[in-house]
Write a sequence for this structure.
């Protein structure tokens, strides 16, 4: 594979080691993490970079036990239950819609999700909840020969949560999403649900009070989200890996462009390994953070306020890893591109509604910035003081205005054709 470390110039999400070493809190966990990775990594495959081993694991997180089928199907019933929202009608699946690869925005065309209450909008575009069993806890990683530290993992666009069990209450109780009320209101509803008995059978104290019900529901939904059903690996790409299908000429060309650091350079962050038949090595992300600087989404009502910005990683409330420092502002977690063609909106702010536009943006962000930032303010959705941290070093952004774009129109089409092979069979 032609991707190299050179390619991983992640401008913004790195701290100089000199600074990092003064932050004991950073180096200790990252060294532990490296030790853990060495103990658990697979034998090196030809052609894959060590960093891919470090960043993407092929096994579920430590401590994850294979959940029972009863627990998984209970979690699935909760995930699809529209009675849990206020007013009723919005389930987890309204936003994480199977028809959109478990992403989607509940019918909103603005780029961010519509909540259960009329006119209420979530803050961000809904990510897919497929393949979550491969997301590791948030951590910093330092490669021996690299001058800087990289951030990886955690759930949400800003990695602010490590536990799927604890995560459930955020969308459930968030007034902009399901508006489920207090934990006590949730337990009252769940007592009336047709899965009340199975829930009590699995978790004896589940219906005692609000805290217990949220915990039990979280456990059940986490079991569902990390079940094999939610990591299907049934796309054409996977079939090609297994030797059961072949790419069309366009798709094969798209894959080559995707990997080529002189062209798309996409695989530098959206990691894959197409030389071995194990699809778990092709998650199309390393869960790393980067400042891609998609254009400001003018359709979002809150963007009418010119002082409003979603700063991503540096807004993470837990500052244990010093993620509140400026370098992390404007960085968001790299999404997996599996099932990307099914999404109605792209990027954390949902600014693109066509996959082709997202790819064209990468190809020409550096060479024709006016096309993406018509006001002339480059990186207009990142506060001015943090624009210097936007990644301008990695392919495909490492070009200058007026130069040839990283991909021409036909090449963009080929990359899109390749991305369409990442859609799982239904
Ligand atoms: C109103 C739309 C909406 C509903 C309903 C909703 N979500 Fe989400 N979900 C989102 C958005 C938006 C994000 C990204 C939030 C962020 O990054 O700050 C998200 C993120 C997630 C993530 C993190 C995924 C990742 O890749 O890190 C998980 C897991 C998740 N939601 C599970 C659920 C569960 C379980 C429910 C039901 C209890 C639910 N969601 C209901 C919109 C929704
Ligand atoms: C340096 C790392 C990096 C490289 C290189 C990179 N990406 Fe990304 N990609 C990201 C990050 C980070 C995001 C999320 C950015 C955001 O929302 O602010 C993203 C988002 C996307 C999305 C939106 C997905 C969604 O669910 O919203 C698409 C599509 C995408 N990338 C395709 C590509 C393609 C095609 C290439 C090559 C032409 C590429 N990327 C190169 C890091 C990268």
């Amino acid at each position: 594979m032609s991707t190299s470390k050179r390619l991983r110039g992640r401008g913004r999400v790195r701290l100089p080691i000199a600074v990092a070493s003064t932050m004991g809190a950073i180096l200790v966990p990252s060294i532990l993490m490296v030790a853990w990775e060495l103990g658990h990594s697979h034998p090196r495959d030809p052609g894959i970079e060590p960093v891919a081993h470090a960043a993407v694991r092929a096994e579920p997180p430590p401590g994850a036990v294979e959940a029972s089928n009863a627990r998984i199907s209970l979690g699935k019933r909760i995930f699809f239950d529209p009675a849990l929202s206020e007013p009723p009608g919005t389930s987890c699946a309204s936003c994480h819609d199977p028809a959109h690869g478990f992403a989607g925005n509940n019918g909103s065309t603005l780029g961010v999700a519509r909540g259960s209450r009329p006119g209420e909008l979530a803050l961000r575009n809904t990510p897919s909840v497929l393949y979550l069993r491969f997301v590791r806890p948030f951590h910093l990683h330092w490669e021996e020969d690299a001058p800087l530290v990289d951030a990886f993992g955690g759930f949400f666009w800003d990695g602010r949560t490590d536990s799927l069990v604890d995560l459930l209450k955020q969308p459930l109780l968030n007034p902009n999403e399901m508006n489920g009320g207090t934990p006590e209101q949730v337990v009252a509803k769940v007592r009336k649900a047709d899965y009340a008995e199975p829930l009590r059978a699995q978790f004896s104290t589940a219906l005692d009070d609000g805290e217990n019900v949220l915990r039990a529901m979280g456990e059940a939904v986490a079991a569902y989200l990390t079940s094999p059903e939610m990591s299907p690996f049934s796309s054409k790409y996977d079939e090609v890996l297994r030797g059961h299908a072949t790419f069309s000429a366009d798709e094969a060309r798209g894959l080559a462009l995707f990997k080529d650091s002189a062209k798309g350079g996409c695989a530098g962050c959206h990691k894959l390994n197409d030389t071995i038949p194990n699809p778990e090595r092709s998650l199309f992300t390393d869960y790393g953070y980067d400042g891609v600087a998609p254009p400001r989404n003018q359709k979002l009502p809150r963007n009418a306020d010119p002082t409003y910005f979603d700063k991503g990683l540096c807004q993470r409330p837990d500052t244990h890893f010093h993620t509140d420092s400026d370098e992390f502002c404007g960085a968001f977690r790299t999404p997996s591109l599996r099932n990307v063609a099914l999404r109605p909106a792209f990027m954390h702010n949902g600014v693109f509604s066509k996959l082709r536009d997202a790819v064209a943006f990468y190809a020409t962000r550096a060479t024709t910035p006016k096309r993406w930032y018509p006001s002339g303010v480059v990186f207009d959705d990142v506060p001015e003081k943090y624009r210097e941290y936007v990644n301008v070093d990695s392919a495909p952004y490492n070009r200058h205005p007026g130069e040839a774009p990283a991909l021409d129109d036909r090449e963009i089409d080929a990359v899109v054709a390749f991305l369409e092979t990442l859609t799982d069979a239904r």
